[in-house]
Amino acid sequence: MANFISLPFYDLLAENSHVATMREKLPPVLAGVHRSVLEIGAGSGLITVSLAEWTSAELFALEPSAGMRGMLLSRLSEQPELLERVTVLPYDALSLDLDEPVEAMVMINVMYALEPDYRKRVWPVLAKHLEPGGLLVFTWRDGGLPAPRPLKELDSRRVGRHTYTVSSEIFESDEESFRGRYVYRITQGDKVISEEELVGHGYRPTWETIQGELVGAGFVQADAPEGLLAWRLA
Ligand SMILES: C[S@@+](CC[C@H](N)C(=O)[O-])C[C@H]1O[C@@H](n2cnc3c(N)ncnc32)[C@H](O)[C@@H]1O
């Protein structure tokens, strides 16, 4: 599994990036979902708490990373009502095990981490745990992968006297995957307080690939705004 995430940086930088967009785009796609939602790769719970605002459904938040789950549970603990309504599943998507199928599944910014062979095996597992006609929504972008490039700063935030900066370098990329490194640095002026480097692969399947895999697993495409794909179990 690719992991380009540095836990202490996650919430600091995520609110600046995809979370605000998803909070705009997801609610209309999920309108009409009332019984149950599974969130795959819930991370620190930034989307989970929004799901709980948009729907009164029972929520299942699946997250394999213990560090991420720690942040998620800490976020849920701030709202006792959520501790009643959200079940946290401490394993990866292929290990999914639910008492009964859910009405909808949401997977935000997770696919980049799934190796192609793993991803192909995941769709039938999700299909098995979705109600007939149930909805699967996930982030997806067409247009290929970033071309190789040197280290570039992506974002930074001030925290007291320190600056938290993330940079990335792309070593090589082909049609559906890339190899790169992410560098997470905490600095005070010119002084580096800490630095963490994560090297690995990321994946972005083409439209033909994703369509073939989902149709093969019994899904039919539904409408979704740009940046998201929605599929229903036939
Ligand atoms: C970029 S984070 C996104 C977290 C959250 N969805 C959000 O939008 O804030 C990707 C998450 O996917 C999780 N993940 C990676 N591989 C996974 C797998 N095989 N099954 C389920 N989750 C996975 C990671 O642990 C991480 O928390």
TrEMBL record:
Which Pfam families does this one have?
Methyltransf_25 (PF13649)
Domain called Methyltransferase: residue spans? 37-134
UniProt-recorded Gene Ontology molecular function terms: methyltransferase activity
Give an example GO biological process.
methylation
Task: Name the InterPro entries on file.
Answer: Methyltransf_25, SAM-dependent_MTases_sf
Q: Note whether Transferase occurs among the keywords.
A: yes
Q: This protein's superkingdom? A: Bacteria
Keyword Acetylation among UniProt keywords: no
Q: Which UniProt keywords apply?
A: Methyltransferase, Transferase
Protein name in UniProt: Class I SAM-dependent methyltransferase
Q: Which species is this UniProt entry from?
A: Nonomuraea helvata
